[in-house]
Every structure is written in C-alpha cells, then in structure tokens.
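Below is a filled-in request sheet from our internal design queue. Each sheet records the structural input a requester submitted and the sequence that came back. We keep these sheets so that new team members can see what a complete request looks like end to end.

REQUESTER: design group, bay 2
PRIORITY: normal
MODE: inverse folding
CHAIN LENGTH: 239
BACKBONE (tokenized):
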C-alpha cells in the first residue's frame, strides 16, 4: 500500500512539473506569436525584439500600478462608509504595490485605530490582545509615514493621539504633537492635545502656557472658556 501511495505522489509531482513546464512553454509561444518574435539573428532583429518585449513589460507595470490605485480608491470608499476593517484590507493590498507611499501608511494607522476601539472582548476572556495588536499596527504605520515624510503633519498628530490616549506614553506624545505644531502652527486641536500631553508628562507650566496660547488666538468663546478652565487645572497641579 505504501508503495502505491508513493507511486501516486511521485506521479502527481511529475505531472505537476510537466504541466507547469508546458504552461510556461505555451506562454512563451503565445508571446512570440503576439509580438512576432521568433529567433532574431541580426542586430536589427535583436533590437526590435528588445523593444517589443520592453513595451510588454511597460504594459505589465502600468497594469500593476492601476491595480494598486484601485485598491487605494477602494480603501477610501470603505473609509467614507466607516467600514474600517474592509478599508484596512484594501490599504494592505495597496501597500503591496506602493510600499513607500506615506499616505497609505497614514490611512492604515487611522483604520487600525478605529478597529482597536471596535475590538470588544466578545468571548469574555478578559484579553485585550486583538485591540493591542491594532494599536501597535497604528503606531508602526504612523511611524513609517513620518519616516517617509518628516513633515507629514497628520501622521505626527495621529501618532501623538495613539501615544497619549491609547498607550499613556505622554513624553512620546509631546514630541509628536510638537512636531505637528511646528508644521501647522495655528492648529487649535493640536495645541489642546499638546497641552494635555504636557499635563500627562507632569510638565504643568508648559501645559498652562499652551492653554494661554489657545486663549490668545481663538475667536471662539466656548473654546476660550474651555482653555481657561484647563489652564486653571494645570496651575493647580503645578502648585
């Protein structure tokens, strides 16, 4: 019985190899027919063959690029519908075509952040492993985005949010929000988050100073009142 199984397996492998080889030969024959390239001999014939196959390669590259673009578009459509899990899959596929695109890493970070919030413990096991994995993915994605573009303000901001609100690493959050504010100097949201990160890092004086800055530039009375209240809390903590 063993001999029979071995013979069958051997036959399957040989058949697979022959089929693969035949398939490759068929593809080559089709390419030769399509490009009208058989066995070029002269310099002119060889140069012509190179050009024809170069054009074929360019067509393939263009098709691959278009597929990557469609995956990016698909991710955006899913984000519009707040389907962040599906968007994350689409952006992951897009990264296979554009592995050095900072915008894709940013959106992976955004989607991973949302999925971390949605990863409830349905089994009641007390484990937060899935949520923590998404948080780590968001962190790594934002970090990759700013590695590719150090002036990517939204990625710095997103990374700061992850450190401040998900990981309680306020010193790291301070660095990120400071970078974001250097790029977008009038962002009230970034100022509020930076002030909060200063507070979490026990830099209460800097927190109060940042709230002062908000108070000095905002035209919204409710924003000013909120900043004044938070400034008071920072000063109370300092003294």
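RETURNED SEQUENCE:
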């Amino acid at each position: 019985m063993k001999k029979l199984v071995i013979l069958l397996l051997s036959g399957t492998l040989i058949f697979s190899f022959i089929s693969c080889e035949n398939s490759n030969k068929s593809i080559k024959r089709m390419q030769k027919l399509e490009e009208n390239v058989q066995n070029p001999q002269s310099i002119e014939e060889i140069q012509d063959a190179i050009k024809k196959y170069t054009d074929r390669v360019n067509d393939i590259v263009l098709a691959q690029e278009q597929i990557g673009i469609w995956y990016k578009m698909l991710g955006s459509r899913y984000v519009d519908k707040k389907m962040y899990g599906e968007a994350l899959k689409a952006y992951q596929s897009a990264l296979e075509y554009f592995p050095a695109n900072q915008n894709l890493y940013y959106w992976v970070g955004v989607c991973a952040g949302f999925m971390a919030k949605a990863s409830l413990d349905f089994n009641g096991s007390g484990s937060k492993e899935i949520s923590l994995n998404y948080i780590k993915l968001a962190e790594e994605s934002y970090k990759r985005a700013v590695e590719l573009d150090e002036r990517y303000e939204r990625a710095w901001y997103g990374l700061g949010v992850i450190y401040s609100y998900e990981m309680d690493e306020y010193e790291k959050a301070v660095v990120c929000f400071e970078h974001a504010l250097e790029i977008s100097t009038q962002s009230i949201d970034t100022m509020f988050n930076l002030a909060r990160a200063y507070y979490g890092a026990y830099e209460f004086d800097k927190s109060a100073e940042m709230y002062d800055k908000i108070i000095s530039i905002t035209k919204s009375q409710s924003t000013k009142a909120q900043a004044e209240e938070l400034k008071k809390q920072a000063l109370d903590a300092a003294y």
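SHEET NOTES:
- The two ends are 86 Å apart (CA to CA).
- Confidence is low (pLDDT under 50) at residues 1-10, 12-35.
FILED BY: M.R.
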